[in-house]
């Protein structure tokens, strides 16, 4: 039964990754939080385990998603090369920062962050791309990648909820922003997962079937299905209008954010 749940999570996460370029983490983290809670894992590490496992699965999801986007010529590889070093370094650092944050603190951070990004995306859904806007110089893109990497590791996401708005704000159409974000999810996921495994290995609480803060069984089950469904999500992304894609993306973020804020506060009271 546990494996079936992980496969279903993977199916939803993969489709979401291909559709929105978010790596699927915004789906994986809240559902894994529920599953691990039902399995009666130690409450102090459940959020860290959900975030670390989410990042590990995004490695597979990103490969599947970006290959589908690349076939449509939507990935801006020159931009990816500028962002990648910062994304990887920032993600590893972010994993170390997350290790010092409590589970409740992570819930509230993820919740408010998701709603903030969702609000910005929904507000800008009907705005036209300003052709005069251009991406900053290579060094500034690298710095932006570092910030995105740190936040993405803390929140257990592939970076899409930051990379997509960042590129979109600098004149990149939503489909190309989503595709490039999907590629950026790979260095984030690899460095972040390694970081959560490294820092989690020193944790005092032991969780069965896990390496550090990465749950092996969940990783395998989710990865298998997400690899398949990410391609389907990428196909759908290229059939929707940019405004519709932004609004759907914003709604997803708002639902996830509200859930974590509720959980975070309910654990305090």
Automatic annotation (TrEMBL):
Where is this protein found? Cell membrane; Membrane
Q: Gene Ontology cellular component?
A: plasma membrane
Q: Which keywords has UniProt assigned to this entry?
A: Cell membrane, Membrane, Transmembrane, Transmembrane helix
Note the InterPro entries from the entry.
TM_pro_TauE-like
The topology of this chain with respect to the membrane is:
Multi-pass membrane protein
The answer on whether this UniProt entry bears the keyword Cell membrane reads yes
Transmembrane parts of this sequence: 6-33, 45-67, 79-98, 105-122, 142-167, 179-199, 211-232, 244-262
Q: What is its main location?
A: membrane
Family named by the database record: Belongs to the 4-toluene sulfonate uptake permease (TSUP) (TC 2.A.102) family.
> What name does the UniProt record give this protein?
Probable membrane transporter protein
Q: What is the lineage of its organism?
A: Bacteria, Pseudomonadati, Pseudomonadota, Gammaproteobacteria, Moraxellales
